RNA sequence: UGCCCGGUGGUGUAGUGGUAGCACAAAGGACUUUGAAUCCUUUAACCCAGGUUCGAAUCCUGGCCGGGCAGCCA
């Protein structure tokens, strides 16, 4: 939010009118034009029938961002007009996620259901004006009467009912005198319109199920089209920002407000976010959960806020991402790489460095005294001296990463090989003298010697080593389970029609056990972020980690130019 | 054969009549006690065709391509 303000400031100072996105252009143009009242009110209107995901974050940062940049307000409004789908569980989850993101609605928390009485009055007014009528057609009949994309519809036989009869019938609907599905209230617009939304759209339907807030007070509920615009109007929303698929509804949005003669907010549509290698539609996300392809809505592979949070993504990274992707009207698929870049950029500055060996290989340093332990000094974060340093215990037996040793190395392999000297990070130079194998020929242990003069990693004679590898003292190592995540989907643009099992990445989760981590992480608490040097960023899993068996999630790997090169070889 | 919205490097996004910019990605190099970070360099784009204009990514016309819409979902 701050950086956005900075951008605005610098723009104002330089006297330029550099645009940030077309929505903000419209808002500032409106502010310039409406002399007197420049108050901006936006709203973030989730339907509480699913969990917040990265697509919601784009919308939320847009709405809350515009409000904060203009000293306006952004209302959190739960769009709860369909009791059969919505639940309190989801409203709580949304609030939790928004708070975690640092998006603050103050005391502007509303529900569409707060306006059910008012909305009912509005409906009566429409009937009164002969702009709405009760229709007895059933669902199939309404569909048939609507016509098709290329053919006009036919008018309902109930379209010209007298006003009085409509009022009585509508009151009857409210009183529960009619069966669910037997009647609806419809707007009287134009059955021949090229825009199907204008072919006498349904305004109210009978739904005899309990609403999570209004309980059994109502058995008729407004549709989205009737609730949304009027709720915007009631709240004095100036800019009602929604996604592209609602553009077709704007004529209806405008028509209703005009017909009622009430305050008329402006609807603006932008393109929703698509992210590569994942899905963002509510339907597909819940399919992943219900079919057990993931372990719940907060599975760290999920693009949900709770999943990303558990994975170790930070609010700052998420908001930075939303700023970078921009806001426009063309369909788009943003590469996951950009999100990962934002995460790395934040964590590079803030995460404490630590050494952890994912796939341990035992190394015995033969000329190091068996009973000796040294405390070596290690920097906590080279990007931030304020974070200080720590002591790391060193002893005769250590673990190194299996990938850091190769008996028969390719060119440009800088790590340990037989006879070669490398540096142990913050430790000594060691040279590999022997390779021990089991009967199957697998390497089980390395024998090395160290140079006592290279403590801390410097050679007094000035000789250089090409490689520096990380390590953990065997007797001091903490055991950990580490979960390595990869893209949920193989395809960058998963086809929702395809069978999920054909397009899901079978290796999206790789659980490593027996990992060895330096003792300083014993103090790790939930959601603490670490960089395991040369590996990536990791956080303690908030659900499964216990002090006796730490569980880490790999948030994102470090960039790995060697790994890339290796793949090509 | 209806209505609406869009097409700028691989991806995302600026540019609104005057040298097509930025970020991510990719490639190369420098530096390096993280093959990280940092720094430098490079590759790479206006859907097509006409028109208006001294000059068009931008304005006009016609195509082409993509997306959305036929819930009593939002």
What secondary-structure arrangement, pairings included, does this model have?
Blueprint: H1 2-14, H2 22-33, E1 41-44, H3 54-69, E2 73-78, H4 88-101, E3 109-111, H5 116-128, E4 132-135, H6 139-146, H7 163-174, E5 184-187, E6 202-206, E7 220-222, H8 224-235, E8 239-243, H9 250-260, E9 266-270, H10 282-290, H11 305-311, H12 315-325, H13 336-350, E10 352-354, E11 356-357, E12 360-365, E13 374-379, E14 389-394, E15 397-401, E16 421-424, E17 429-437, E18 443-450, E19 468-469, E20 471-473, E21 478-485, H14 500-503, E22 509-517, E23 529-532, E24 536-540, E25 550-557, H15 561-568
Parallel strand pairs: 1-2, 2-3, 8-9, 10-23, 12-18, 16-19, 21-25
Antiparallel strand pairs: 4-5, 5-6, 6-7, 11-22, 12-15, 13-14, 15-20, 16-17, 17-18, 21-22, 23-24, 24-25
The protein binds one RNA strand of 74 nucleotides through α6, β6, α8, α13 and β19.
Characterization of the model:
The chain has helices at residues 2-14, 22-33, 54-69, 88-101, 116-128, 139-146, 163-174, 224-235, 250-260, 282-290, 305-311, 315-325, 336-350, 500-503, 561-568; strands at 41-44, 73-78, 109-111, 132-135, 184-187, 202-206, 220-222, 239-243, 266-270, 352-354, 356-357, 360-365, 374-379, 389-394, 397-401, 421-424, 429-437, 443-450, 468-469, 471-473, 478-485, 509-517, 529-532, 536-540, 550-557. The longest helix has 16 residues, at 54-69. By secondary structure, the chain is of the alpha/beta class. It contains 15 helices and 25 strands. The structure holds one RNA strand of 74 nucleotides.
